[in-house]
Amino acid sequence: MASILKDLVRQYDEAKPHADPRTKNWLLVENSPYPVWILTVLYTLFVIVGPRFMKNRSPLDLKWFLVVYNLGLVALSLYMFVEIILSVLNAGYDLTCASYNQESWKKPEELRVANVLWWYFFSKAIELMDTVLMILRKKNEQVTFLHVFHHASMLNIWWWTMMFIPGGMSWFGACMNCLVHVVMYAYYGLSAIPSLKDQLWWKRYITRFQLLQFCVTFTHTVNSIREGCDFPRWGQNLLSGYMVIMLILFGNFYIHAYIKRRSNKLKNSKSKGIANGSPATKDAPVANGLCHPPEGADIRTKAE
What we know:
Blueprint: H1 2-15, H2 34-54, H3 63-90, H4 108-126, H5 129-136, H6 145-164, H7 170-191, H8 194-197, H9 203-226, H10 233-275
């Protein structure tokens, strides 16, 4: 671990002269990765220590806080989605190949793009609270590797983005992720209201929406490489590579939470039907045409 951190510091020192002078002193960017690294370490420690602290304690009743928290993130995500679109149109971006170079630092329209992307970066710090709330409510089965890895990695990736490339092609993945988060946090906010929980039928489609987001963002990024877009190649490689990782992890979740579970329900239904002396019907294991995820299945993760 020490050698990894040492290598990261070396890479940062080499890249520092190329940092965007407009954003390098903004909150949490602060011309140094240390604030974000400290936050990541504290987050990881809470993931490890939190469940032990709560083990012999009753789960906290945070129902109404969850409503306010999640719907607040809906409002923030909707604002960022709209503002990203307006700012890139104002900056005259080519939507398939938005350039970013040192000349971009001189354009006032680019500052508006950087500002909304900072809010997106800051929202990654706010969203660490997702995990804290799960642990305080003793929903430890939701704190999966996918969940923790995604939250921690997004915060750190977006520090590098805000430090070095807060504009150009960086807008697309953030915009897509904000749209997904509007839908996702709306579900979680409304599901915290007891009278609405059983009426929300669209949980499984959120995971499909996330997978679609990764596919679209990957395709958009690879196409920008093909077109020779004037954007740092390491940024394009980082985003396309991260989308592949997210597709693998989220795809694995979807297979286990929906496809395999549906297959198991079909097998169990047939077995019960034969045991009772009558064959099971084809639709027996799926209520109302929907296959619901296992209790505690975690979809509260975003690429973003």
